[in-house]
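Repro case for the chain-ordering regression, as requested:
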Amino acid sequence: MLIAALSLMLAAAVLAPLAAGRLGRRTGYPLAAVFLITAGALLVGAPEVMAGGVVEVSLPWVPELGVELTLRLNGLALLFAMLVLGVGALIMSYAPQYLSEDYEHARLYGILTLFAAGMLGLVLAGDVVLLLVMWELTTLCSFLLVGGRGTDGARPATQALVVTGAGGLALLGAVVLLAVGTGSTDVATILATAPQALSARELTIVGALVVLAAFTKSAQLPFHFWLPGAMVAITPVSAYLHAATLVKGGIYLLLLFSPLFAENPVWHLTLMAVGLTTMLFGAFQALLQHDLKALLAYSTVSQLGFMVALVGVGTAASLAAATLLVAAHALFKATLFMLVGIIDHEAGSRDIRRIGGLWRAMPVTAGLTALAAMSMAGIPPLVGFVAKEEAFYAFLGTSQATWTADTAVSGALAAGLAVVGAALTFAYSARIIVGAFAGPLVQTNLYEPKAAFLAPAAVPAILGLVLGLVPFVLNGIVDRAVVDTGFTATEAGLALWHGFSAALGLSATAIGLGILIHLRRNRPAILAEAVAPAMLGPILFDRAWSALLGFGARVGRGAHALTTAPHLGGILVVLLGLAGAGALTISDLAPMRPGTAQPADWVVLAVLLPAVLALARAGDGMAALVLAGTVGLVIAAWLMVLGAPDVALTLLLVEVLTVVVAAPVLARLPDRRGDRTGRRALVGSGLAGLLAGAVVLVMTGRRERSAAAEYYLAEALPATGGSNVVNTILVDFRGLDTLGEIVVLAAAALGLLSVAGRRAASGWQPGRAGTLGAGELLVLRVGALVVLPLTAAAALVLFLRGHDQPGGGFIAGLLAGSALAVARMSGIEVRLPSVPVLVSTGLLLALAAAGIGLVWGGSLLEPIKVSLPLVGEVSTSLLFDLGVVVVVVGLVQAALANLAGDSGRAGPPAAAAPLAARTAVPARSGPPAVTEVAP
Amino acid sequence: MTLALAVAALTAVGIWLVLRGGAVRLIVGFVLLGHAANLMLIAAGGTDRREAALTGQVEPALAADPLPQAFVLTAIVITFGLTVYLLWLAPRAEEAAGPGDWPPEGSP
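-- result from build under test --
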């Protein structure tokens, strides 16, 4: 039944926006019916609860963590659930009259119903994880509802979210501590075992976290300020969330966990002190407000403080008073909010100074408002009076609480403060009645709203009167709630008339004092000074909030820079720091192996270092290109000396291709030799260089060949049939790695095409590095005709022999690419498939080789040897390497087509014209289908 | 010692060029940093054995470590891909920055 009730609410939340599409603002009526049906479903379990039982249902949720979706209906939960659903039904039937036709009904009703479901889940939750999830759900719904009305709500909504969200984090901390400490997430188990399972210190931390969560949610000092801010929300939201239910979540949490802290004086004194302070502060503030809604908001803050203080007293009587006050407050505050909404709607203002004498035009509205305000003021025979008198009685009995056994705590001070709070409450309640209804009628054309608008507000107002007259009907539920908060048996014995008791005397004092304050209400300046220190909360919040945003802006500032230094400087500093820290741990270096540096290396260095250092001053594109090419070629030669012929060949070809591709681009870039220099960049790069050199010096050349190297050298031939170990690593041992790398190359090629498609839009066209004369071109072309077939043949040989001799897919692909570059420069057309076709073919070939290995060899990329006629034995790794060739050719092709442009070619205009026509095509239509090289 | 010197020079100049910005320096700086990283990998394999790792053709005890070579080989090709990309971006970056010093005055 509990599951069904919660599911019904969640389903309604999903369906409400859909229904709103058809019903518009009238969606509230069917939703009110759903709320009542849900309430009815829960009431099925009520007899069992009232008899002292608990209705419970559990579904497995996260069995690995022992978290269950437990719903538990006891007296406390039943009371809160009835408030959530009952007030919810009233609000839902109020909203259709309040909202205009063009409001965002789908959003409002959806979130409002979702909130109700979350609130119901919160009070029914029998598992702390579920409790936390529902707690956060209500926080988020509140944020969405407050922020839902344009930009006005953005700041208050953020404030509410940050404050209550911080409370949610505190609750998470408490939940984790309790779950870890007791090994259970079940609420009942935790309440039973936590005092033994957790140390006193842990329990204190849990208490502090629970208090933090409850204080933020229930707007206690110094976190109160989000609640008045949240009043930018529309009235149904304020009435439901920020008066009747959401803010009671904190009270519920305190009630739920109070058994854990029954003997802890700090817990009780904190609650009483903060609660009473908040009560007085809120009441003072309410007295100063002119906006009726703001008055009610501060009044809510004040009443919540009252409840917190009562929970803090920690006797059966005080908890009974607290639960009764929760119910009474929900009734009169929801009524007042709805009526203020009606007044605002009809009279067009909520300012207490601009409306008056409304009872002449709207007698029913005025009467209901007076009824609810009297309940709030604690005037008999309304339920508010009963609750308040119970509260005074409870405060006076503070010394009977178990936690006061060792301390001389008397309830007299608390009761005295509560009387002052109640007097202030009376005074601002009187302001509502007198301010809005006495005096002459200010406005004209005012009429009583129709019954459908008034009815939802009338129900709780009249209920407040009825319950005040027969309060004993609540005895049962209040008793059950008190038992659920850790007391064995009580007799609430609620009554309107207890005889002449001390509590009655306090009630009378409060009313008398209230009348006195009301009569002297025109001197608010004194009050304003009295409450000034309590404004610290919002000021601190604003400071912390702007400091946080400022910190974020500082962190993000580097990302907004146009230059590279702010982006890379931080990374560089961190790297230097890490390396420096690592250097401190080095000890016991092995000696450098002989032969690590040889005479030939010094010769190489003699050429390399001047070229590198000269590059430091580079600013002119062509000079830089020449120097960089020199550096590359020298390193390639060095690699040859170092026994890496495959790497050397690869680098050599890459250098050639880089020059071909880069020359036309760099030639056009501005000369920047005269730029300012940065001292910090100089120091940073110098340090980085020193460090990199030191790392190489200290950490390399001091050990035997690695185990991996020995393995590859020994196993390459027997395992793969190839004797070029580097190539077998690329295509056999670490084929998957290589597959990933050619995917990167393919992505680079395709990426180049996609960005180049937008070249026309950017207005930049590849330039000509220089123009060749007809004679030079002829020489180039004749030379190319000789060189091209030879290059192609060489590429084929290098490819085929790659498994055994220096060569292989990368080298063959680069060499073929170089041939393409030569052909392009000399104006010879080579027809090739388009770049996308090339790279996808290459990838498919490599994948095919991988797949064959999987199917016939049992693992991905396993080389399979087949004997072919004429050729002999061939391994599938050759197929894989062919894929590499095709992808590399595709990359070179993309680079040539998109960067080299038409540079280096010239000749008679007749030859250039069709060429121009061809190069213009890819600019408009994307990837070229054919290499655009002029014949 | 020799490789350490080369790596030091390449790293210092590479980072200097990248930090100073401007399209040409950025591209050349990245290329130099690529060289530095590649030489560092080769150094990690040890340079006291200098025969190509070709089974059956060289004395196995003298063969160089083939694994860093395989890493470096693919790294070179990928650096080429990156260079090509930067070359495409370079003129657009210069165009966006407009004439004048690099870094522009007043930039953070």
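Ordering looks correct now. The radius of gyration of chain B is 18 Å.
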